[in-house]
Amino acid sequence: MIILDLIVSVLALSCNSYGRVLEYGTPESVGLLSWPFVQLEKNISAYLIPANYSSATCNEIHPIISRSGRDGTIVSHFAVREVVKYANDNDSEFENVKKISAKLDTIYDMASVAVASMVVNIFQEENSVSQLLTHTAGFDADPAPPLWTEYTSYSARRQAIIKQDFTGPLGMTDTFFNRGNLALDTSRIAATDFQIAVQGTSEPQRPQPVWGTVHDENAWSLDGVSGHAGVFSTSMNLGIFCQMILNNGKYGNVRILESQSHGLGFELNQYYFSGPMQSLQTVGHTGFTGTSMVIDRPSNTFMVLLTNRVHPRRTWSSPNIAREMVGYWVKKAMGLGE
């Protein structure tokens, strides 16, 4: 695995969609072919049939929400199957009236995909560690108003800062932490696994399946707010995040990140999540729950794929073959590939 420690050179490249806000359009409007996206949906939907597709895929991949965009234009988006399907970890299904179908606005536990957004938020600060250590950051000795605000907890402070400086300005209204592990309205949220049945009684004692609270046990123990997990979001909100990166840190009239800032938190040049779109300028991140996003700088393209890998249990099939398939058909849409 190659972790991208510095993408200064990538962010500094020219980009025609600087500040562009996402809108819907046809593939042809941004120089793409339409038929590969039709085939993408057919192929992805086929993975809903249980089969041994690869060494890591022994069951169906479900559910699937896919969203792809280029030059600030969403050219493909679809949702298939159920985000709530199983009544227990033994694959017994709920009766149909209790199942919940995937929708384009379904909210997912993003798992490690949270890392990318956390790091972007951190690098909004203009002062470096070296400046702080050498007392050259430019802070007054006794500033007014003060540089700090009293919060009830560390997690409350982190959540407030992210909403104020990141998700709020971007209009990512469906992106949030469930601070306090509260019982939320789960009608739009994808369920995850039956942790206690699968992992044992040492797991957090909470309603099963895990649904609306963070799947990651460590993040749950930290009040639901952590730097490595805990973020809930939708495919559209992730698309906004990706477009902001393609815009060199700006979305509309809002600047979130300076173009010369570091890009910690992304992986670089990985086939398992980008397929044939893999390159040294293709970055992305995946989440344990089956989520992923890919940003391809050369083609000004992003790909978001949300699956529910851990429902009903975390030993379910890997969605990597579906992630690679998205990259395959997006490249086909560009008139490239075999």
From TrEMBL:
GO terms for molecular function: hydrolase activity. It holds the Pfam family Beta-lactamase. Residues 1-19 form the signal peptide. Gene3D superfamilies: DD-peptidase/beta-lactamase superfamily. Residues 161-313 form the Beta-lactamase-related domain. The keyword Nucleotidyltransferase does not apply. It comes from the Eukaryota. InterPro entries: Beta-lactam-related, Beta-lactam/transpept-like, Diverse_Enzym_Activities. Keywords: Hydrolase, Signal. PANTHER family: BETA-LACTAMASE-RELATED, BETA-LACTAMASE-RELATED DOMAIN-CONTAINING PROTEIN. This is Beta-lactamase/transpeptidase-like protein. It comes from Armillaria solidipes. The lineage of its organism: Eukaryota, Fungi, Dikarya, Basidiomycota, Agaricomycotina.
